Recover the amino acids of this structure.
């Protein structure tokens, strides 16, 4: 079976035997792919998009390390301050498919530029907010930017670099997600401790302005090559079991993570007894461990990786909720960062393998659920903290991580059983053809395709 062309790269007609030489860069008829082959500018554009992803996810998660000072300054509880994570996560989850569909006829370059500009302005407004209501409204605008930018950026690598570099470029673009998750929060926490929480928001707004300039300078025009309709998204969920399972696992893992991680500062202080002055340093250690985890997970089977992540984090979060002592808290936090660092890259790998012919739609669904889960996690953790105790947030996260591990295992087992049945049927029933003893490619799980 011939492999389908990557989304956005479908040829309009069969290629001639001897295709013409690429047009020079100055030729107005030069295609995006011709420009991609040009070299350094394509990689510069990839770097600018990756910087945009890093900036946006950092902005989304920035309040995690600033909950206590923001709450104290504006007169709200830690649980209420957690809405600064809940609101943008919820809005981003809704806007990922909305922006992907709504931007169908617009140049992707200008869509990304507008979304980054919106994020920069929103953070500057947050830095100047006179009260919590204004701050929360600014966070809503951050959610619009995050959902739209992340969903569109995921499919751009194929249009920016030559075909043999697409995998590496895609990894670089999505590397902005785990890097922001594990480095952006501790860096923001450190800035907040040095200059106050308003300075941290203003710094992220300034980084957004620099990213805006990079996108304007380095991104080529990116006219639409393919449009997605709202009907395609539920259709993909209905027909592709691997995509459905990936969306479910995304929800459980990310909700569990942010039920606990949104309140990591009070957990470290109240349970582990870590001095406030050392929290930012420990979060930087968490970040370094997370980057290492991202690289360790990058080349591995996403099924096995995500099962290991869920099971390990269930144990780690249960321990950090119960074991006192700064040393124990430090060791568990570093282990937490190392294990969770592989989540984003593994989930993205799962979705691309599950639906290679519908990668943009599958990524849109994953991005939507990822951000909705951030909101759900922050909200459930806040309810646990306000209604029970600080350690209850970590216990809630542990329970969801365990459920995620079970879901991955059940999915893996059912897919393996399905492959065995299909293999037997193919051998026993001559009328069954075209399967080669395995499930259809479009319905195969990531593990099935290895």
């Amino acid at each position: 079976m011939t492999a389908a062309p990557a989304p956005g790269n479908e040829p309009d007609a069969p290629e001639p035997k001897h295709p013409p030489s690429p047009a020079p860069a100055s030729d107005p008829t030069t295609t995006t792919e011709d420009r991609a082959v040009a070299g350094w500018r394509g990689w510069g554009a990839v770097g600018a998009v990756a910087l945009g992803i890093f900036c946006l996810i950092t902005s989304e998660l920035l309040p995690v390390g600033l909950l206590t000072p923001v709450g104290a300054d504006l007169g709200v509880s830690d649980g209420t301050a957690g809405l600064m994570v809940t609101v943008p996560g919820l809005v981003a989850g809704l806007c990922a498919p909305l922006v992907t569909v709504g931007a169908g006829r617009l140049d992707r370059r200008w869509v990304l530029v507008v979304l980054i500009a919106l994020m920069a302005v929103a953070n500057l407004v947050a830095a100047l907010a006179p009260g919590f209501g204004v701050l929360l409204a600014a966070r809503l605008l951050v959610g619009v930017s995050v959902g739209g930018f992340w969903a569109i950026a995921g499919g751009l690598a194929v249009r920016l670099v030559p075909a043999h570099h697409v995998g590496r470029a895609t990894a670089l673009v999505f590397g902005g997600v785990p890097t922001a998750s594990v480095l952006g929060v501790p860096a923001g926490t450190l800035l907040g401790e040095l200059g106050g929480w308003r300075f941290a928001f203003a710094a992220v707004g300034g980084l957004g302005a620099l990213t805006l300039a990079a996108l304007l300078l380095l991104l080529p025009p990116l006219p639409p090559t393919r449009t997605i309709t709202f009907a395609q998204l539920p259709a993909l969920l209905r027909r592709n079991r691997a995509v459905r399972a990936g969306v479910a696992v995304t929800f459980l893992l990310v909700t569990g993570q942010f039920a606990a991680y949104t309140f990591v500062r009070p957990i470290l202080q109240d349970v582990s007894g870590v001095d406030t002055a050392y929290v930012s340093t420990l979060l930087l250690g968490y970040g370094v461990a997370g980057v290492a985890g991202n690289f360790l997970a990058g080349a591995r089977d996403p099924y096995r990786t995500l099962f290991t992540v869920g099971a390990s984090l269930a144990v780690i979060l249960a321990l950090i909720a119960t074991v006192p002592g700064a040393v124990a808290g430090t060791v568990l936090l570093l282990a937490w960062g190392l294990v969770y660092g592989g989540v984003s890259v593994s989930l993205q790998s799962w979705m691309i393998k599950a639906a290679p012919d519908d990668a943009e739609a599958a990524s849109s669904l994953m991005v939507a659920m990822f951000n909705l889960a951030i909101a759900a996690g922050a909200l459930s953790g806040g309810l646990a903290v306000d209604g029970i105790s600080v350690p209850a947030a970590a216990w809630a996260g542990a329970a969801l991580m365990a459920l995620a591990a079970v879901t991955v295992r059940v999915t893996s087992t059912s897919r393996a059983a399905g492959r065995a049945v299909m293999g037997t049927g193919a051998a026993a029933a001559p009328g069954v053809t075209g399967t080669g003893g395995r499930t259809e490619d479009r319905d195969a799980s990531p593990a099935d395709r290895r």
Notes: The radius of gyration is 22 Å. The mean pLDDT is 78. The longest helix spans residues 391-428.
